[in-house]
Amino acid sequence: MPRYAMVIDQSRCVACMACVVACKRENDVPPEHYRTRVLEMVEGRFPKLKSEFRSELCNHCSNAPCVTVCPTGASHKEEDGTVQIDRNKCVGCKACLAACPYDARYINEEHGFADKCSFCQHRLKAGKMPACVATCVGGSRMFGDLNDPDSLVSQLLRENPYRVLLEAAGTKPNVFYINQYPRKS
Amino acid sequence: MAISRRSFMKYVAAAAGTSVLAESPFIGAKARAKAEGGKAVYITTTCEICFWKCGVIAKVVDGKVVKLEGNPLHPQSRGKLCGRGQGGLGLLYDKDRLKVPMIRTGARGENRYKSASWDEALGYIAVRLNAIKDKYGPEAIALFAHGSSGTYFANLLRALGSPNITYPSFSQCLGARNVAWELTYGHAPQCTCERVDLVNSRVVVLFGTHLGENMHNSQTQDFAEAVGNGARIIVVDPRYSTAASKASMWLPIKPGTDLALMLTWINIIISEGWYDKEYVEKYTTGFEELKDSVKKYTPEWAAKETDLSRRQILEAVRELGRYSPNVMIHPGRHFSWHGNDTQRGRAMAILTALLGSWGRPGGIWLECKTTFPKLVEHPEYPEPEEDAAIFGDYPFAGGEGLTNVLRETTISGDPYPVKAWLVTGTNLIKTMPGQEETMKAIDNLDLLVAIDVMPTDTVMLADVILPEATYLERHDGLFAIKTMEGGVSLRQPAVDPMYQSKPGWWIGSELCKKMGLDDYALKGTWEERMKREAKLWKIDYDELVDKGYITIPNSRHPYITADNPPTFKTPSGKIELASSELEEEDFDAVPVYEALDQPPAGQYRLLYGRSPVHTFTRTVNNQWLWELFKENEVWLNADEAASQGIKNGEVVYLINQDGVKSEPVKVKVTERIRRDCVYMVHGFGQHSPQLSRANNRGADDQKLISRYKVDPICGVTGMRVNFVQITKEA
Questions:
Q1: What interhelical angle do B299-306 and B258-271 show, nearest 10?
Q2: CB-CB: which of B14, B70, B220 is closest to A150?
Q3: How many CB pairs (< 8 A) connect A and B?
Q4: What is the nearest CA distance from A72 to chain B, expressed in angstroms?
Q5: Closest by Cα among A52, A32, A28 to A42
Q6: Are B359 and B283 within 8 A, CB to CB?
Q7: Relative to the CA of B514, which of A80, B328, B494, B594 has its CA 20 to 30 Å away?
Q8: Calpha distance B18→B607 (Å, rounded)
Q9: Of the partner residues B23, B79, B83, the one whose CB lies closest to the CB of residue A21
C-alpha cells in the first residue's frame, strides 16, 4: 500500500492562491471555509526583510489527534496513509476541530459534518494528483508515495533537509516543507 | 537544494512505472471523457479572465461547468491555471451578471433602465448611430475595447468608415514599453507573451514588475523556475513585493528614479568594459554617442538620486556584467508610470543590447517563424474621410491609439465632434486617469453603448447595455499563439449562453445588419468562419476542437545562430543605441535623466499594483475570488504610521494634491514599503449597486489619479505622479 505525502518547496511559492481556488472548486468547499491556505509572513525591519510563504493543509498525521479524539470513529486513518472522515458517522461534535493543532478542519454547516483536506482521495483513485498540486503555478507543491523509494517525494526527502509543522506536538505529519526561505545567492 | 524543473524531470523519470499515480497524459477531450467513462464531458477552450490566453479544459456535467483546469498541451497554461482561471465559474454563474438588453429611462447614472428585446435594443442603437453618422460623419462614432470582442465592433466601425478605434492597453498599460523596444530593435519584446527566457536566465532584473502578484500563468511558472534554478533575482522596487521576497538583492529605490539607476548602470558597463563588444560591434549603432552621453551618470550621483547606496548599485551591476549575456532585464508590462516612460523603456532595451541578451539564452528570445494569413470575407472597408482622432501630436502613438486623445476630442469637439462611444470589455471610468474628464466626455455624447458581462461602473452609465455571453459560452478566435513556438488555439462554448446574453460576434454582426451594412455582417455563424480560417491556416479544425491547441512545426528559432541571424526593423537595420527616429522628431536620441517632482512633507506618492486573484475591476465581484480578496488596503510604512498615529487595520481616507478624497480604506501598516510612498491594489471602490459583493468595497486608486503626465513621445498617460495625504476624518 502507498503512504501518501506532500512535499512543499516554499521557495517556489508565489502566494498566487491558485491552489486555494482549485481546492475549493474541486471539493465544493462552502464559502468562507478552506481546506488549504497560503500564509505570507514577513520578518525584519525595512529594508532588511525576509519572508516565508507557507501553504498549510491537513497534515494527514501518522499519529493523528483528530482520529484519537473522534468519539464515533468517523475520523480514521486509511491504508494509504491518509486521514479521512466518514460523513455518515460524523455527528459534528467538533472534538476533532479542537484537537487538531493545525486548524485544518471546519464544520460544513449545511450538512453538519466536519470536513478537511482529503488529499483529493477521489482524484488519487483515478491516478490524478490532488487539485492543488496539479495547478500549482510555482511548482511548489509535490506529491507522491513515501513507500516507493523511487517516488519524487521519497527522493526529495532523501536529498533535502526538511521540516514538519509543530514537530513537538508529536503528530508525525505527512506534509513536509523544504527551502523555507529562497536561497540567497 | 532548490528544486528546478530539470531535477524535477529527473525525479519523475526515475519514478516512472513505479508510481501508483499514473494519470495518462492529456491527448484530447474525447479521449479523456472516454477513459473516465462517467457522465462528464470535456471542452477545450481559452480563458479570458485575463488576456494571457491560457488553454482551458472545462469539465461539464449535466450541462453545468463544474471545474476548469489548465490544458497541458497549451504553452500559456501547461496544465495549470492561476486562481483567477480556476475561479472562472464565479463569472459564469455570477447572479449579478447582465441578463437582458437594457435601455436607459432615467438620468445618466440614476440606474433606471427598461428591459428590451435584442431586436428593440439593436434597432434603438442602429437608428441613433445612423443619425449621428448622417449629422456629424462616421468619425463621430468611436470604440473603446479590450479583449476578443473588440474584433467584432472594430469591424462595424471600419465598415461605417470611422478610424476612431482605441484600446487602453496601449495608453494606460504597455504602449510606451513596446514603442521603446521598437525604436531600439524594430520589434516589441512581446508576442502573445513577453519573450522572456527566464528559465535560462542567470540574472533576472525586475524594475517594479511584480511577477507573482501580476499573475501571468506561464511567465510566473518560469519565474518560479528561475528561483528554483538559483538565478540571481534583482528587484528594483520601492515596495517589498512577492518577487522581492524571492530576490537575492532588493533595491528599494526612490519612486520615479529608475532611469537614473539604469543610465548609471549603462555608464558603468561601458566604462568597465563589461559589455559584449563583439555583439555591440556587429549589431548596434550609436555606441559612441551613448558612451559620451552617459558619462555624467556616476554611482555617487545615482546613489543620491535613487536613495540607494553606492555599494548596492555597484554590486548589482557587477552581476549583470558577470553573467552577460544570460541576463534578463525584464521589459515589464504596465509601463505608464511617470510621463517619461518611453525613455525608461529605451534604457532597458539599451542595457539588454549592451549585455548581448537579445536573442541569447536567458535573454529575450527571437520571435517564432510562422505567419497566419488573414481571412477577409467582406468588401474593402471605406477609406475614412477624416483623420483619426486617436493619435494627437504624438509621433510614436501606436496603432491601438490613445484613449486619452479620443476623450479630449470628445470633450472639445476639435477637430470634429465625437458623439457616440461603443465600449466593450473595459471599465473606462476605472481604467483611465482623470475621471472627471471621462465623465465630462460622456456627458457630451448622444449615445453610449456598453457591451459587457458585468454591470460595472462604466456599464451603468450607458444608454444601452448589451449583455454579452462569458468566455465559457461563446466562440472566439482562432487565436494565433506566438510563444517560443507558433501555435493555434480557439475559444468554444462549454455551455450555452445563460439568460438572454449573446456572444460578441453575434451582437457585432446583427448590429451591422441593422445598420444596413449587410456586406460586413457574418456569413453564417462564427464557428463556420473559424473552420474556414482553420482551412486557410492548414489546421485540422476537428483536431483543434479536441486538443485545444495545435503546434506549428519548425517554428521555433529562439536564439541567434549562424543559420538564424537576427533582423532589426529599424531605419539602420541595427539595434539603435542612439535612436535615429527619435532624433528626427527632435527627441533625445539617447535617454536623458530628468528628476521628477517628489511629494512634499506629509504626502506620499501613490503607487498601485495587482493582486494575483484579480484582473483590474473585472473579477472583484466574482464569488470565488472576492472571498479571497474582498477589498484593497493602503500600504503604509510602519515608521510613518507610528509618526502619524495610525494603527494597522484603521480606516482612513486619502486626499490627493487636487483635493480629491478617496473612499474609506483600511491601512496595512508594514515594513514592506518606503516611507515616501503608499501602495494600493487597483480595481476596487466600485459604486455600481448591481455588483452585490464588490459594491463600495475598498478604495478606487483611479479616482485619486486625477493628475497624469503624458509621455511626449508616444502619448501614454503616466499615472504614478499623484501625491496623497492621509486623514482619519470622514
A1: 170
A2: B14
A3: 187
A4: 31
A5: A52
A6: no
A7: B494
A8: 51
A9: B83
Cell of B626: 472576492
For B427, the 3-state DSSP assignment is coil
Rounded CA separation A110/A33 (Å): 12
Rg (CA), chain A: 17
B328-364 confidence digits (pLDDT tens): 999 999 999 999 999 999 999 999 999 999 999 999 9
Inter-chain contact A179–B86, Cβ cutoff 8 Å?
A: no
Cell digits of residue B225:
523556475
Q: Which of A41, A135, A176 has the most B C-beta neighbours within 10 Å, making it the best mutation to test the interface with B?
A: A135
**Closest CA of chain B from A83, distance in Å:** 18
Cα gap A34→A48, rounded to integer Å: 32
Find the closest chain B residue to A44 by CA distance.
B671
Cβ within 8 Å, pair B628-A17: yes
Residues sharing a CB contact under 8 Å with residue B227, sequence separation 6 or more, in sequence order: A11, A12, A182, B2, B233, B246
Give the other-Cβ count within 10 Å of B684's Cβ.
Answer: 26
Tell if the CB–CB gap between A18 and B248 is shorter than 8 Å. Answer: no
Contact B658, B593 (CB under 8 A): no
Report chain B's mean pLDDT, rounded to a whole number: 96
Cβ contact, residue pair B83, A17, below 8 Å: yes
Cα–Cα distance for residue pair B648/B655, rounded to 1 Å: 19
Q: What is the pLDDT of residues B502-516, one digit of tens each?
A: 999 999 999 999 999
How far apart (Å, rounded) are the C-alpha atoms in residues B192 and B72?
A: 17
Instruction: Please state whether the predicted TM-score (pTM) of the whole model is above 0.95.
Output: yes
Contact between B224 and A53 using a beta-carbon 8 Å cutoff: no
Coil, strand or helix: which one is B130?
helix
Burial A159-171 (b: 16+ CB within 10 A, else e): ebebeeeeeebeb
ipTM of the complex: 0.97
Element (H, E) at A127: none
Instruction: Select the residue from A4, A6, A13, A21 to test the B interface by mutation, using most B Cβ atoms within 10 A.
Output: A21
Contacts of B206 in chain A (CB under 8 A): none
